[in-house]
Write a structure and sequence with these properties.
381 residues; alpha/beta; 2 domains; 17-stranded parallel sheet; six-stranded antiparallel sheet; 37% strand
Length: 381
């Protein structure tokens, strides 16, 4: 049976038009949806990048400017929060450190991007294995010298282990057990005139094995000056700690005659231990206190009322002069380590006192945070 042919096609245009509109609408909706997804993906990527960059900035800040004295009391396995810092609108970073071994730390930084209400939009956390690079100096006497040592006037060199009385008052400074050393350890000659005093165990140690290559133990002068944090451009007239105008005030480490504050535990500069380097002769005069490690690539002259706590290492001659009732006092140890120079003079009321506590505080406090050479960085999440 043949199917009758349909001649009436009225209404087909409407159906085709509606179908076309549906197709076009679907295409438009798909385009808008694709654009919305891409926009949201791009926005999320932007937030994620902000969080990652915040984490990078926080980690770099801790490594480059971390105060080594903050990490020393941390027990092995212990974790310490280093604070949260805002880096802009809704972007912040929180950092913490975990002590893995005596000198190895895991530093972690968590960067966050939040909305206006404080909701977290993106987080990124990274970490780095770091270590405290501490100067490796061996000091076994109040004064260690190669060549001629002359003590005159009321000067005194002592290897009896000493520490300031204020360091024993609460909160007490962490010091090693007292360990007396030689007063003068030398390879050359020692001359005493007037009322000069040498004390220690023994007072004098004539060590014929002492040379310029082993006077610092395993360290070298070149290695030590590579750790310098304060490079002097001239002589120093007076020492004084300086703080910034910030609230709370911080130790202003940009001032050349600010060498920390060794006696006031509440001062912002009490834990500032610069590694001070001078290329050429250095003359220190006036009065004041300082601490850290003093490196002089030349001759050192000190006079006035100067008190310094920490190792003093000089490649040339050392002249320490008290003037009348004024005293120059060094707590730690003085090393004159260039074998070609032989004039180490202590005169007037000058004193050099061995202090294992001052040495340890200076070495620990001047330690620098550095990443491991290989595989130090890791993305946590």
């Amino acid at each position: 049976m043949r199917t009758p042919r349909l001649h009436n096609e009225r209404g087909m245009a409407l159906a085709v038009a509606i179908f076309a509109l549906v197709v076009i609408g679907a295409l438009v909706a798909g385009t808008f949806y694709s654009g919305w997804v891409e926009q949201r993906s791009g926005r999320n990527t932007f937030y994620s990048t902000q969080a990652a960059e915040a984490a990078e900035a926080g980690l770099s800040s801790v490594i480059s400017s971390g105060d080594a004295t903050l990490y020393q009391p941390l027990a092995i396995g212990g974790t310490m929060d280093l604070g949260t810092t805002a880096l802009g609108a809704q972007v912040s970073v929180s950092t913490q450190a975990t002590r893995l071994t005596e000198s190895l730390f895991l530093v972690r930084a968590l960067g966050q991007r939040t909305d206006a209400a404080g909701g977290v939009l993106a987080r990124r956390s990274i970490g780095a294995l770091t270590r405290l690079v501490q100067p490796d100096i061996s000091i076994n006497a109040g004064l260690t010298a190669i060549g001629k040592v002359t003590l005159t006037g009321n000067s005194e060199v002592s290897g009896v282990d000493q520490k300031p009385l204020s360091w024993s008052a609460p909160p007490a400074v962490d010091c090693p057990p007292a360990d007396d050393k030689a007063g003068v350890r030398y390879n050359g000659t020692v001359t005493r005139e007037g009322s000069a005093i040498v004390a220690g165990d023994p007072p004098l140690d004539n060590d014929k094995s002492l040379t310029s290559s082993n006077i610092l133990g395993d360290a070298t002068f070149e290695e030590l000056k590579g750790l310098a944090t304060l490079v002097l451009t001239g002589n120093i007239s007076g020492l004084a700690p300086v703080v910034t105008l910030a609230v709370p005030p911080r130790c202003n480490t940009s001032i050349e005659n600010n060498w920390g504050e060794p006696l006031d535990k509440l001062h912002p500069c009490f834990n500032y231990f610069p590694v001070i380097y001078r290329k050429g002769d250095l003359n220190i005069s006036g009065s004041g206190n300082g601490q850290g490690i003093l490196l002089v690539e030349g001759n050192l002259q000190v006079q006035g009322t100067i008190n310094f706590y920490g190792p003093v290492i000089v490649t040339g001659a050392v002249q320490i002069r008290g003037t009348g009732t004024d005293d120059v006092k060094f707590y730690g140890g003085v090393l004159a380590q260039d074998i070609t120079l032989d004039d180490s003079k202590i005169s007037g009321n000058a004193e050099i006192n061995f202090s294992s506590c001052a040495i340890r505080r200076a070495l620990r406090g001047s330690a620098l945070m550095a990443t491991l050479n290989e595989r130090a960085w890791v993305q946590l999440y």
